[in-house]
């Protein structure tokens, strides 16, 4: 309950800050809607319909009231409800963020375990060097290089777009046993997922390595070795389990960060998610859409944090007693 109350306060702060930025931003929304219409009466009517003729505090209270009823407003540019726009692009962003997280987990955790168990050996040096390169590589540059080298030169993957939605591809698999759409979806998402997940992979690798090294020096590891348990079982069932709490925390935080930070990757690969729509709306001065996307990402971030608290309290009951 305390986490939920903190989350509500965070969301209120996000709403307030975004509304303040909207008020301070240059430009007139009427120009975006009316275009080149010179009729002042028409422009005044649009301003009145949008409530822009009201004092700023009245507009703020009206906006809060709309949010409490589930309305994010209407797009100046697309003439549609912001809720519909966010819902249309949300799935693509979630697909990309989850795919990047899967890439990071599949690569980083085994790499971190190998690095920790083979300290000061070539495998450890290679993992450390790879982590340093991954953390230091800008994702927009990596995305462009992947397009130029892998997509253009080798011709293995598409360079832009989404192809087909994941849920549509899975429907075809379960309904008709057709995997063509799923393979198409994989071909489109591999390069963006690698681009977005590289930094994440390097971070989790370093975190897993340091956590494993700390755990390997504890007495219970010596006791399990004395019992004759296989090294693989000791590393992955006992040692890695005790290393998971900080890893899960970072996973949850980074998943929320990936959803909000996929803007550059979506722009590079023309991935039709919230990030690409955010950039387009910001360029057009479509502030209702900008506010709606930022608020939606903030809600996702808060919910993910609460779920992370619940998961690692489950893994370590001592956390829930604090």
From TrEMBL:
Task: Name the CDD domains on file.
Answer: TM_PBP2 (cd06261)
Note the InterPro entries from the entry: BPD_transp_1_N, MetI-like, MetI-like_sf
Alphabetically ordered keywords of this record:
Cell membrane, Membrane, Transmembrane, Transmembrane helix, Transport
Q: Which domain of life is it from?
A: Archaea
Gene Ontology CC annotation, any one: plasma membrane
Stated name of the protein: Binding-protein-dependent transport system inner membrane protein
Q: Does the keyword Lipoprotein apply?
A: no
Q: Which PANTHER family match?
A: DIPEPTIDE TRANSPORT SYSTEM PERMEASE PROTEIN DPPB-RELATED
Native organism: Natronorubrum tibetense GA33
Pfam families, per the entry: BPD_transp_1 (PF00528), BPD_transp_1_N (PF19300)
């Amino acid at each position: 309950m305390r986490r939920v109350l903190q989350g509500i306060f965070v969301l209120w702060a996000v709403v307030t800050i975004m509304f303040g930025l909207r008020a301070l931003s240059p430009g007139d929304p009427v120009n975006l809607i009316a275009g080149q219409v010179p009729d002042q009466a028409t422009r005044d009517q649009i301003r009145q319909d949008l409530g822009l003729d009201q004092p700023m505090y009245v507009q703020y209270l009206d906006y809060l009231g709309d949010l409490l009823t589930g309305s994010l407003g209407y797009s100046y540019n697309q003439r549609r409800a912001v809720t519909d726009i966010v819902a249309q692009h949300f799935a693509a962003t979630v697909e990309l963020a989850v795919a990047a997280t899967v890439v990071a987990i599949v690569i980083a955790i085994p790499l971190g375990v190998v690095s920790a168990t083979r300290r000061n050996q070539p495998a450890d040096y290679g993992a450390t060097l790879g982590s340093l390169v991954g953390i230091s590589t800008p994702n927009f540059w990596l995305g462009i290089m992947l397009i130029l080298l892998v997509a253009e030169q080798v011709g293995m993957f598409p360079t832009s777009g989404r192809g087909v939605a994941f849920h549509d591809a899975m429907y075809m698999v379960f309904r008709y046993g057709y995997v063509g759409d799923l393979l198409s979806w994989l071909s489109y998402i591999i390069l963006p997922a690698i681009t977005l997940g590289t930094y994440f992979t390097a971070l989790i690798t370093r975190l897993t390595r340091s956590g494993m090294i700390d755990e390997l020096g504890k007495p219970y590891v010596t006791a399990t070795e004395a019992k004759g348990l296989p090294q693989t079982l000791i590393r992955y069932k006992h040692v890695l389990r005790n290393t998971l709490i900080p890893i899960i925390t970072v996973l949850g935080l980074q998943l929320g960060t990936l959803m909000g930070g996929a803007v550059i990757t979506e722009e590079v690969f023309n991935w039709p998610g919230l990030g690409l729509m955010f950039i387009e709306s910001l360029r057009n001065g479509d502030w209702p859409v900008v506010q709606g996307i930022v608020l939606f990402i903030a809600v996702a971030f808060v919910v993910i944090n609460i779920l992370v608290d619940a998961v690692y309290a489950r893994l370590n009951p001592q956390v829930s007693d604090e």
